[in-house]
Amino acid sequence: MSNKKLTIAIDGFSSCGKSTVAKELARKLGYVYVDTGAMYRAVTLYCMRHGLISDDGAVDEAGLKKVIANISITFTHNELTATNTTWLNGEQVEDEIRRIEVSNKVSYVSRIDFVRSQMVKLQQDMGKQGGIVMDGRDIGTVVFPNADLKIFMTASPEVRAQRRFDELTAKGEKVTFDEILENVNQRDYLDQHREVSPLRQADDAHVVDNSHMTREEQFAVILKLVEEAEKK
Ligand code: DC
After folding, report:
1. Measuring CA to CA, how many Å separate 134 from each of 9, 53, 159, 174?
2. Contact 47/109 with Cβ under 8 angstroms?
3. Does the C-beta of 106 come closer than 6 Å to ligand 1?
4. Rounded to whole angstroms, how far apart are CA atoms 10 and 85?
5. Does residue 149 carry a pLDDT above 90?
6. Residue 180 has what pLDDT?
7. Is the pLDDT score of 99 beyond 70?
8. How many H-runs (helices) and E-runs (strands) does the chain carry?
């Protein structure tokens, strides 16, 4: 590995293991890792707590616009456990933002233009120095269109639903596989069809379909791409 500090963008569908790879990569390279999905999840949790979103996903946009600049989202990283923690206005919300109630509503918040422009601004600030791995939906297309390396990850909806089901049941959440599959399909649709920055593969992104890859195989493929990008 060289001393060059790359900007690495990892985009793709929900639950296809982007954050696992991004975290592992950041650790290996000594880079900062930013999970942009956590930021949209934190704004969604804020809306849920402040009566700014209804049960069926209708957002009080005027109300949210008034307070968006005061929503502080930060991350801390624990070297020992290699984990990242998300903070919302100084409160630790890492577990709460992963709950299914938040997953079911996040697409309604992440499609709002002023929410996106505020998050994109924060993300660009975090990546100013390079040496960053950022995962999301629009990192290679909008946040860092000049990233040194762009990866677009994908896997079949069933494989992704199974992974998320295993993750949530391991944490003790009472969910069914069908409910998770429905959430995965619904989010794919909403992510790809929203008006502002829909999920799409950047023209210069490398596609990695990990439906039939082990974590190790996938990591090897991605490390090779990093080595090639370092030589450029
Ligand atoms: O990666 P995730 O599943 O935690 O992301 C949560 C939601 O946030 C997802 O449904 C789409 C949205 N998102 C987005 O619109 N843009 C990003 N850069 C990251 C996430």
Report:
1. 5, 27, 23, 30
2. yes
3. yes
4. 19
5. yes
6. 94
7. yes
8. 8, 8
**What architecture is the 7-227 domain classified under in CATH?**
3-Layer(aba) Sandwich (3.40)
For the whole prediction, is pTM greater than 0.70? yes
Instruction: Please report the pLDDT score of residue 2 as a whole number.
Output: 65
Q: What is the pLDDT of residue 78?
A: 85
* 107 C-alpha to ligand 1 centroid (Å): 7
37 CB near ligand 1 (under 6 Å):
yes
**Rounded distance between C-alpha atoms, residue 205 and residue 224, angstroms:** 14
Spacing of C-alpha 143 from chain mean position = 13
Give the SS3 label for residue 174. coil
The C-alpha atoms of residue 131 and residue 3 are separated, in whole angstroms, by: 10
Percent above pLDDT 70 for the chain: 99
CA quadruple 44, 45, 51, 55: dihedral sign: positive
Q: What is the pLDDT of residues 191-206, one digit of tens each?
A: 899 899 889 999 999 9
Residue 188 CA to ligand 1 center (angstroms) comes to 10
Residue with CA closest to ligand 1 atom 1? 37
- Ligand 1, atom 16, lies closest to the CA of 137
